């Protein structure tokens, strides 16, 4: 470390404090995982990076290591994170930072729970949709269009609306095309090749259904 005039910044701005807050919060989330064990490291690095001045790191150095190996760095950072003088301005700054970190973490956790709940609702609707489509394709493949009862059609409409409300991108044209294709089937024209193709579609849909069911079982 090259020290020119290592010290706590004379004027710690709101921007400085926000940078510290954001870096500490980021330490709690690494590579999509919740990593609270990096919180202390994140706090030390953020304080040293944004609240101190008058130094330059040399190649291969980092604030966290210097905190434990350089007494000057250790002393200055501790004036924020381990200061027993409750009247100190540095303590007041750190209290604000920690309160904001706590608020942001609470918000992030609540948002994550809400997003997970939305995904569960989406997949539940998707599973219902798959059941309807699988049943319908089963009747199409067997050329048993009479099995498509008014109740089945009504259920399909209800599920389709749920999918639309959830934001799932499925156009009405795609559904209409499937129905038209099925309606145009005639027993005397339906070849073995067509029936086998439909059966292949059924098997593929059942794969998605199995994946969803295994996902619920593993919870």
Describe it for me?
The protein is mostly helical. The protein folds into 2 domains: 2-82, no CATH class; 114-217, no CATH class. The chain is built from 8 helices and 4 strands, in the order βαββαβαααααα. The chain has helices spanning 14-27, 39-50, 63-69, 71-81, 89-141, 150-165, 172-183, 192-217, and strands at residues 2-8, 29-30, 33-34, 52-56. A two-stranded antiparallel sheet has the order 1-4. It has a two-stranded antiparallel ribbon with strand order 2-3. β2 (29-30) and β3 form a beta hairpin. α3 (63-69) crosses α4 (71-81). The radius of gyration is 30 Å and the shape is elongated. Mean pLDDT is 73; it is low at 139-145 and 185-190.
Summarize the structure.
This protein is mainly alpha-helical and 219 residues long. It is built from eight helices and four strands, in the order E-H-E-E-H-E-H-H-H-H-H-H.
Question: What topology does this entry show?
Answer:
Elements: E1 2-8, H1 14-27, E2 29-30, E3 33-34, H2 39-50, E4 52-56, H3 63-69, H4 71-81, H5 89-141, H6 150-165, H7 172-183, H8 192-217
Antiparallel strand pairs: 1-4, 2-3
Helix pairs in contact: 1-2, 1-5, 2-4, 3-4, 5-6, 5-8
Output the keywords.
7% strand; two-stranded antiparallel ribbon; 8 helices; 2 domains; 219 residues
**Low-pLDDT stretches:** 139-145, 185-190
- Average pLDDT level: 73
Q: What number of structural domains do the residues give?
A: 2
Number of helices: 8
Oligomer: single chain
Task: Report the major sheet.
Answer: 2 strands, antiparallel
Question: Mind telling me the C-alpha Rg?
Answer: 30 Å
The count of β-strands is: 4
